Amino acid sequence: MLAMDYRGPRRVRIEHKPMPVIQHPRDAVVRVTRSCICGSDLHLYHGMVPDTRVGMTFGHEFCGVVEEVGPDVQNLKRGDRVLVPFNIACGQCHFCKQGLFGNCHESNAQATAVGGIFGYSHTAGGYDGGQAEYVRVPYADFGPTLIPDWMDPDDAVLLTDVVPTGYQAAEMGGIQKGDTVVVFGAGPVGLMAARCAWLFGAGRVIVIDHVEYRLEFARTYCPAEVYDFREIGDPVVFLKKITEIGADVCIDAVGADASGNAWHTLFGKKLKFEAGNATPLAWAINSVKKGGVVSIVGVYGPTGNMIPIGNVVNKGVTIRANQASVKRLLPRLIDHVQAGRIDPKGLITHRVPLEDVAEAYHLFSSKLDGCIKPVLIPNAE
Amino acid sequence: MTQSDKANAAASEAPSVAYPSIDPATVVGWGVDADPKNDPTWPIRDRSGDDGARADWTPPSAQVAGVEILQSVEYGRRPAVVGESTPPAGLSGMVRRAAFRFSEGQWGHWLLLMGADRLNTVEGLLQDFRRGRMPNPLFEMGFVKHERRHEAALATAAVVGVAVAGLVLLNRRRHHLSL
């Protein structure tokens, strides 16, 4: 089968690889019909996530058709259309029983902090991902969800990560009616977080980024007030001025690959002395009001970052963070899609044959051609 | 037994800690201010079915791994399913095995893994050469489309060839002048 193949920072290619097989009674093999490149895949692509091995296949956002199931999988059959949450979760450990499906204790031998994630380095379990024609899906009797007949596969594939992550970012903010919400980052997750902030009753939604076409997209898609941080001076001072006392809720939807501070870019991104560049998180902490909430869904490496933790204490800031618990959120999100309250496929700007995966990564990473969200399509005609 | 198996075995044989046993009911004022609404984890963490059990769930049946799996020393036992992509190998594999002697809380663990990743990139190039495959950075970095990858490989080979020939000529010239 054809699959994406990581060769080193900023180098990927398409390769013929062996077909995945059932390795556990609860496994399934899924034929991939849609697979996205996620903003967090770019952290891998840029060589920022430890234990990213040459030869691995990335891809944690995918949907497809069940090809084969293990003997313990009773709820799926060959031919079922499924969307597969990016979390690999057993459904029965202490953490899964509490709905923390991103923190499953039975799916990641290499690290205890996070559960297994498809195609996301050995720090997330060492599973090959869905940027391929076929993929092995562990715990298939728990994770995969049948795609409703009425649902477009382009919507379904975005329900595996982007939509739940953006939604949970807003949910963790504890947004109350009328609240002012600032979202740092106008990538797909930031855009979805800003869109979902309205669902929780936000009174004002502000998006900060520096990529003009993405800010323009946010202005209409979310919809939101948008500001280019290169044009507003000190973003913290600016936000305090336009919100008077600071935002009620700030959301970091960028993570390790941020821009905006030369020091952190050098030490965090280039020299890897920090777990990436946490500039938006510092801005979030400093621009949220006293007693406010900072919600983090941007992905960082496992080491450390320089952030103003003293201000968190002095301001009484509540910080909330986690990988999205996709399975927990899916029923609500499917309702939202059906009711037309959110439009996941509206984020897709590029549909690319799987064979052109290298070009798609370059396009997305370098923010070329107005790229918001690229989707890879295996066996594209 | 591999080095990683030895490290995992050593971790599981660590002496157990004797916890002091204090019955909360004997503490004056225990629980008088407990408030179920004071739950900053809601609704991300659903405590409604919390039976107080911690690590005694019935684990799923264990996958029999067909490759070497490195395991965090913070686990008491291996999680039931594992990913078998790209097992550790070569020099980078040795460094990765060394990294897994440290816990996730130690920088040495992660720095060694980052170092192994960089070594692994070089190993990947050498692997390509061993298989008679010319690296094709223009294609792999996404500057050319899939259908034009062969032209990109030829262009790369031509550039490398010219560069190597130039260096050889330069070296000969220097050698000639020094005589």
TrEMBL record, chain A:
**What keywords does the record list, in alphabetical order?**
Metal-binding, Oxidoreductase, Zinc
Which domain of life, per UniProt?
Bacteria
Query: InterPro entries, per this entry?
Result: ADH-like_C (IPR013149), ADH-like_N (IPR013154), ADH_Zn_CS (IPR002328), GroES-like_sf (IPR011032), NAD(P)-bd_dom_sf (IPR036291)
| Similarity comment | Belongs to the zinc-containing alcohol dehydrogenase family.
Q: Does the keyword Lipid metabolism apply?
A: no
Q: Which cofactor does it need?
A: Zn(2+)
In this protein, which residues make up the domain named Alcohol dehydrogenase-like N-terminal? 25-141
Q: Where is the Alcohol dehydrogenase-like C-terminal domain?
A: 188-258
Spell out the Pfam families in the cross-references. Answer: ADH_N, ADH_zinc_N
Mention one GO molecular function: oxidoreductase activity
In its UniProt entry, the species of origin is given as: Brevundimonas intermedia
Native organism taxonomy: Bacteria, Pseudomonadati, Pseudomonadota, Alphaproteobacteria, Caulobacterales
UniProt keyword Oxidoreductase present = yes
Q: What is this protein called?
A: Glutathione-dependent formaldehyde dehydrogenase
